[in-house]
Specification:
Distance between the termini: 44 Å
Number of strands: 3
Helix content: 40-55%
Shape: flat
Radius of gyration: 12 Å
Order of helices and strands: EHEHEH
Largest sheet: 3 strands, parallel
Number of helices: 3
Strand order of the largest sheet: 2-1-3
Length: 67
């Protein structure tokens, strides 16, 4: 068992999907933080250290391309 939880940043705009993924990852002893859009994800990624970032790339890019 790990002595320290691995931290994951999950960037997903669909809250149902984000919560389901976060719950599944938490059940495997990961600490998950959710960002609901690309800007929030970028802000968190720059402010904190994560072992892994999971990014809904298509939705995030679509939001940035079409404000």
């Amino acid at each position: 068992m790990r002595s320290q939880l691995m931290k994951i940043l999950l960037v997903e705009d669909d809250l149902r999907i984000a919560k389901a993924l976060a719950e599944a990852l938490a059940s495997q002893c990961y600490a998950v933080e959710i960002a609901q859009d690309g800007q929030e994800g970028l802000d968190l990624a720059l402010a904190f250290t994560y072992h892994l970032i999971i990014l809904d790339l298509m939705r995030t890019l679509a939001r940035w391309d079409n404000p």
